[in-house]
From TrEMBL:
This is Secreted protein. Residues 1-27 form the signal peptide. Keywords: Signal. It comes from the Bacteria. The lineage of its organism: Bacteria, Bacillati, Actinomycetota, Actinomycetes, Kitasatosporales.
Length: 217
């Protein structure tokens, strides 16, 4: 899991027609059948679904170290996501899983906003982070996080962003220099009650079978 690969940059673009979203993946080409892969940046954009619905995407690092085409799904949101509060509510997630489907790192946003007379009187977005620790006090750690709201009162629209940096030091890399995940979430709230979710993740190194999951509800 610690052999460094010689890599040339390539791009893969996938247009998702199911929900009108787009996903772009920029990755590196490598030797056949590798295990550990060099760095990658993945981007996904989704229109926020109607109340009570959820939309999500997933990209997996394939056997050739290239991201596979994105799969996008939509359907009912889990019962825990019912919008009981007044106004408009939106939850977003941006998660990285390993090849055993263990969540390594995640960035989550929760937004609420009111609308009146073609404006947004009040709005706000909060962010939380989660990461996987190993039993011997090792694993992933939160290195830093930031959040920003472009406007929160009397807005034509609200653009919020959240960022989280994670590092890893543990059984798969005792040095702490090989793996690092940086998550970015961008939420646009509109005065007509609609919204757009955009997500990025930057990985210092990857591994075949790692998969990125993102979505909003």
């Amino acid at each position: 899991m610690n052999s460094r690969l010689r890599i040339a940059t390539v791009s893969a673009v996938s247009l998702v027609a199911l929900v009108g979203g787009t996903t772009v993946a920029t990755a590196q080409e490598s030797d056949p059948a590798p295990k550990s892969c060099d760095g990658v940046r993945l981007t996904g954009e989704l229109p926020a679904p109607a109340p009570g619905q959820a939309v999500s995407g997933q990209i997996t690092i394939g056997a050739d170290c290239r991201p596979e085409p994105a799969s996008v799904r939509s359907g009912p949101a889990p019962a825990r996501s019912a919008r009981a509060a007044a106004g408009h509510q939106l939850r977003g997630w941006n998660e990285m899983y390993d090849c055993c489907n263990i969540r390594m790192t995640g960035l989550y946003t929760s937004s609420s906003w009111d609308t009146a007379d073609g404006r947004i009187p009040t709005a706000g977005t909060t962010a939380t982070q989660e990461w996987n620790r190993e039993p011997w006090d090792a694993g992933w750690s939160l290195a830093g996080q930031t959040t920003k709201d472009g406007c929160v009162t009397d807005c034509a629209e609200v653009n919020s962003e959240a960022h989280a940096d994670f590092t890893y030091q543990g059984i798969f890399d005792p040095t702490g220099d090989w793996y690092a995940n940086t998550h970015h979430s961008y939420i646009q709230l509109k005065a007509d009650g609609t919204a757009t979710c955009r997500f990025d993740v930057e990985l210092r190194h990857t591994f075949v079978g790692w998969n990125w999951r993102y979505g909003c509800e």
